[in-house]
Amino acid sequence: MSEQKTIKYYPARSRLLHWSMAILIVSMLFVGLSMVQSLAVWQPVALSLHKSFGVLLLLMVLVRLLNKYLTPRPRLPKKMSSLQKRAANLSHIALYAAMILMPLSGWLMQSADGRAVNVFGLFTLPSLIEQNIKAYSIFREFHGYMAWLLIATISIHVLGALYHGLIRQDRVLASMLYSKKPKK
Amino acid sequence: MKDTKIKPKNRRLKSKIPEKQARLIAFIMVLPVFFILSYKVTSYLAGKSVSAQQFVDLQQGEQIHAGFRRAHAKGICVTGTFESSGALNGYSTAMVFDEGSYPIVGRFSTAGSNPTAPDLASPVRSLAFVMSGGVDGSQNAEWRIAMNTPPVMAVGTPGDFYAQLQALSPDPVTKERDPAKIQAFFAQHPESKAFLDWRSRYVPADSFAGERYHSINAFYLVDEKKQKQAVRFQAVPLLDSSEIPSLDNENPDALQVQLEQIFNQYPIKFNLVFTLADSSDDENDPTIMWPSERRNISAGTLVINSLTSEEIGQCANLNFDPLVLPEGVAATADPILRARSAAYAESFRRRAMEVLLGKDEK
Q1: Residue B235 forms beta bridges with which residues?
Q2: Tens-digit pLDDT profile for residues B215-234
Q3: Could you say which DSSP state residue B278 is in?
Q4: Candidates A41, A115, A136; nearest CB to B333
Q5: In terms of CA atoms, which chain A residue is nearest residue B55?
Q6: pTM reported for the whole predicted model
Q7: Is the pLDDT of residue B182 over 60?
Q8: What is the dihedral of CA B49, B52, B53, B54, to 10 degrees?
Q9: ipTM for this model
Q10: Tell me, what's the pLDDT at B5?
Q11: Which of B185, B181, B163, B176 is nearest to B58 (CA)?
């Protein structure tokens, strides 16, 4: 998909997409897990924002996929074994799968409960499926369990980044943090 | 290899913890510290507040009736129309306030978590329905309404409501309610006065069709200038009490059977009346009765034109979440209202899974 040219750092647009989505996704996980337990006054507002940001994130992941296709990728260090490289690639595929399946399952869940998904008060998503209590259950459970899977996958991803940054001290973490080799 | 990242002032540290070890420690610690901190902070913020899961656990009680709602488990489905008079047109942009006829799907029910309980065991009855102003779902025009016979709550917060349900629940050993516990609860909650006054005067109507149902919580009607008017609404029965056949008290489905009898002879209609709050009324307090001088406007008539049992009807698989509101209607900051969505969602989640797994008794 992308040639491994001699680029060493991700371009600004890739880094912006990565970090903005990282912050949003972690926030969504916190809010999501809290709001399904909370009886507080803010809960319906959190629910509404969660849905709106979910749609935004679905759009962002599509932009990101396009960006990934168009952007050459920094080469992984030669010292990494091919097994490690394969594991890294698989973890990224898992993250992309989660980033797509989470908002999709949310949208399907809402559709199955006959609920219109209103995005920041600007527009409403079309319903994907007919109202159906069994379909609701499938997507509701999927969305809930997938969230935990996403937390696990993010944890592996973060551990990998920290491993490269703190232990290996190679360029991998730097490639997503900086635009060029930092001074000092 | 020479590390270029050490700043001179860290040389003091370097002698105590080798840098390589420090990095290893940091690597191991980051995630666990993050998770522990997150857990601690979120627990602290949640405090002692009751969760949706605890609330529904309490409503569910000892015996799970798979596939059924955890509250108002026993009910009967209805369909009909809302004949809108257009009288509230100026107060709200909601499409159902434009004059016209809008289909509704609804449900009469009795309180409690046992779908096999006798109808007459619980004095609290409910009318819930969904109506939609738009032709297709994408217009954000669905309005889900869940109304009860009491006009006010005894308490104004979810935590207090949980305590109320605990006080009212039967002793696990004796299976009886504890009058002393109940009395103590109401004594501790002076805000329950209006509710207790109402309850002392209330006589349950002889039928679902003859009851008066209330929104309890207040909502805002929002016009095109985004101006808000706080309202409560009621479904006022139009059936004459003389038209209501007597109840067969021995029949566990007394109310449902009687409803069918009525339906075969008379139209079942309700006047949907909106009460407008004054500036002195606190729309966020569900424990207070609004003075009778408040302006009432009839939005139109609810006409029931079919009854079906839950086994065949559509209403069983619906979730009458009162926070599903159309354009032109908004929620107030009433803490009880704001809690209903999450509580209903938890009950819905449980029963939906039971239906999916085929555990339901239907």
Answers
A1: B213, B272
A2: 999 999 999 999 999 999 99
A3: P
A4: A41
A5: A39
A6: 0.92
A7: yes
A8: 40
A9: 0.92
A10: 56
A11: B163
